[in-house]
């Protein structure tokens, strides 16, 4: 059935049209992602559908049996109430029973009356199944201390509490649910995002969401709608399919624009020749001229950028950390950390919130002094730091003025430079937007400008701390292409798995208690390895350790890393990994050659096979020796 029907919906922000006469339907079971540049009206559209905003014109019809739930980027709470009271705010008997039970768990109860009454009510309403679900949601989102007031929470904690509130609310509804989510993965660590993917796939809901996380999008959505130039285009399938279909659409539109341009020239010639002799019969041709003119002047923005920057010179010494220790009270962040950065290093940092990732970045840049140890940074190193703090605004100026205050031009690798205005256009700020005041920018546009300001300073060591939060997918595409060509060092802290996979080739894994592992590979490689290790740990723990009849103490077996005399460098780790891939391939090729040589083969071919077999034997001996050296 149609959950939502929208006809000719139009909305403007001041004089700027966000979308014009868009029409669509949302059917039961649809899972739709909306893609658009920041400032194109994604969040506005979601608010209109949830009844929190109204369109300038058009119709929105929502089926009377459908319950609409909206998860917003900026959650609204009763600030003076606790987490518990905000989450369990719905007037529903089961909600009240679970709230009272959770309250009894966290409240001193000398005579047990509070808990006794709570248990009785839970039994009466058979609320235990849903309480289990509630505990799973709160546990997976790391929400504890439910008596804490909401106004004392950080931005990330507020976002997780709002997400828990939304998921719990829709769980009580037994009707048809349309869940609308605006950037639900911001401020979630990777494990939380993966859990949310699984949760949304298990629930019987219809979903409409805005997200920049392409792996999350692929995991939960089967349709993509793009708002582009005030119109909406619908695509069926995953993100890769969307990119293919969009490329085909742009090719088709470019061809039709070329045809329109030729027709436009002919029509223009006709209009000029006969300014006075237009009859009623030719009026249709005159009207058609304006349609052709609009088509001919249409601009297709396929935001692809290849920007070879002339980077500040980088000397032989990059950065070196020696025996660095850092703690905050009993919380250990770094424990004798040693590492030497190389030229062109592309490093990702992952770990749970609070594990010390941001502290590490501050120590590396000299913004914080460690408890002990040395941090030596090369004299030629120019850090570019994109932090989570946001855009630094000293005064309210226009976008173009803000960038020109940094520099007038951006140097290019092959000589010459591009102007501040051209650089802004590459990062999707149109000429009109460049003369907008900073205070008028949306949250996402401010993030985009902050990022652009960091890059425009021409650093040779880029540090990006959660750069994808609040950036739209078109901007992320531009950024990824820029960073792919970046010749300096790149260090990224991000929960965006797609972004990490595309740009980094090894990881620092912050495991807590000051333990940091250097993993040779991208994020997806790490997750495959981690899941394999978890399976192995499970099988080890399940092994019978003793056949004696007496009870034996349970011993938890942990796999300890093998300690070598010298830690392998990153290049050596990658070399070892490559050898382990190449040797089996050579063995297989050698076996295939042996099989062919036993058959009826012409002499010339036999000679070639024999030479190749000899060469493979030599290669294998060489690679096996090197493998032994690295393994030892």
Detailed description of the structure:
- This protein has helices at 42-49, 83-87, 93-106, 113-125, 128-140, 155-172, 190-202, 214-220, 239-273, 283-296, 357-364, 399-404, 420-426, 443-456, 473-484, 497-503, 523-541, 570-597, 603-631, and strands spanning 2-13, 16-27, 31-35, 57-62, 66-71, 176-182, 206-210, 223-228, 231-236, 319-328, 331-341, 346-351, 372-377, 383-386, 409-411, 417-419, 461-465, 489-493, 506-512, 515-519.
- With 632 residues, it is of the alpha/beta class.
- The protein has 5 domains: 1-77 and 170-237, Rossmann fold, CATH 3.40.50; 81-148, no CATH class; 241-296; 319-524, P-loop containing nucleotide triphosphate hydrolases (Rossmann fold), CATH 3.40.50.300; 570-631.
- The strands form 5 sheets. A 6-stranded mixed β-sheet has the order 5-6-7-3-8-9, sandwiched between helices. The protein has a 6-stranded mixed β-sheet with strand order 14-17-18-12-19-20, with helices on both faces. The protein has a 3-stranded antiparallel β-sheet with strand order 2-1-4, with no helix packed on it.
- The chain is globular and about 80 Å long.
- Residues 540-565 have low confidence and may be disordered.
Quick structural gist:
The protein has 19 helices and 20 strands. It has 632 residues and is α/β, with parallel strands linked by helices.
């Amino acid at each position: 059935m149609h959950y939502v029907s929208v006809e000719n919906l139009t909305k403007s922000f001041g004089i700027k049209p966000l979308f014009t006469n868009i029409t669509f339907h949302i059917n039961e079971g649809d899972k739709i992602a909306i893609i658009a540049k920041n400032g194109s009206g994604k969040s506005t559209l979601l608010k209109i559908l949830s009844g929190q905003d109204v369109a300038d014109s058009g119709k929105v019809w929502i089926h009377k049996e459908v319950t609409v739930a909206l998860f917003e980027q900026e959650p609204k709470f009763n600030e003076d109430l606790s987490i518990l009271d905000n989450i369990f705010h719905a007037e529903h008997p089961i909600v009240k029973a679970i709230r009272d039970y959770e309250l009894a768990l966290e409240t001193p109860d000398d005579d047990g009356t509070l808990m006794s009454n709570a248990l009785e009510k839970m039994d009466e309403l058979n609320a235990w199944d849903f309480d289990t679900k509630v505990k799973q949601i709160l546990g997976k989102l790391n929400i504890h201390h439910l008596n804490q007031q909401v106004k004392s929470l950080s931005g990330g904690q507020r976002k997780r509490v709002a997400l828990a509130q939304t998921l719990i609310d829709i769980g009580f509804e037994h009707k048809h649910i349309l869940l609308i989510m605006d950037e639900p993965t911001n401020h979630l660590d990777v494990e939380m995002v993966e859990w949310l993917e699984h949760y949304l796939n298990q629930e019987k809901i219809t979903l409409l969401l805005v997200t920049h996380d392409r792996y999350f999008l692929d995991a939960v959505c089967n349709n993509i709608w793009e708002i582009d130039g005030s119109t909406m285009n619908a695509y069926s399938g995953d993100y890769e399919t969307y990119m293919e279909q969009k490329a085909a659409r742009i090719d088709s539109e470019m061809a039709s624009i070329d045809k329109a341009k030729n027709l436009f020239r002919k029509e223009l010639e006709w209009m000029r020749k006969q300014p006075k002799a237009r009859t009623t019969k030719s009026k249709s041709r005159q009207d058609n001229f304006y349609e052709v003119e609009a088509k001919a002047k249409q601009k297709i923005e396929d935001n692809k950028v290849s920007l070879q920057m002339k980077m500040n010179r980088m000397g032989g010494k990059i950065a070196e950390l020696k025996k660095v220790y850092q703690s905050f009270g009993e919380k250990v962040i770094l424990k004798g950390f040693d590492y030497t950065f190389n030229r062109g290093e592309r490093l990702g940092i992952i770990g749970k919130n609070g594990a010390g990732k941001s502290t590490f970045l501050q120590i590396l840049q000299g913004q914080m002094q460690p408890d002990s140890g040395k941090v030596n940074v090369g004299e030629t190193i120019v850090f570019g730091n994109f932090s989570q703090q946001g855009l630094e605004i000293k005064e309210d100026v226009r976008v173009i003025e803000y960038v020109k205050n940094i520099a007038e031009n951006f140097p290019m690798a092959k000589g010459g430079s591009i102007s501040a205005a051209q650089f802004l256009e590459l990062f999707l700020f149109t000429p009109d937007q460049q003369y907008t005041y900073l205070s008028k920018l949306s949250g996402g546009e401010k993030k985009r400008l902050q990022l652009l300001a960091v890059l425009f300073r021409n650093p040779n060591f880029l540090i990006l701390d959660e750069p994808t939060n609040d950036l739209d997918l078109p901007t992320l595409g531009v950024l990824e292409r820029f960073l792919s060509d970046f010749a300096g060092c790149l260090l990224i802290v991000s929960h965006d798995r797609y972004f990490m996979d595309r740009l980094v080739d090894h990881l620092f894994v912050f495991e807590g208690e000051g333990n940091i592992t250097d993993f040779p590979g991208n994020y997806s490689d790490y997750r495959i390895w981690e899941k394999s290790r978890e399976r192995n740990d499970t099988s080890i723990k399940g092994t019978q350790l003793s056949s004696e009849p007496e009870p034996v103490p349970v011993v938890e077996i942990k796999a300890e890393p093998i300690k070598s005399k010298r830690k392998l460098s990153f290049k050596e780790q990658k070399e070892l990994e490559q050898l382990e891939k190449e040797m089996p391939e050579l063995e297989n090729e050698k076996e295939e050659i042996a099989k062919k040589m036993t058959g009826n083969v012409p002499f010339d071919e036999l000679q070639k096979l024999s030479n190749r077999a000899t060469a493979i034997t030599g290669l294998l001996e060489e690679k096996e020796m090197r493998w032994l050296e690295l393994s030892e």
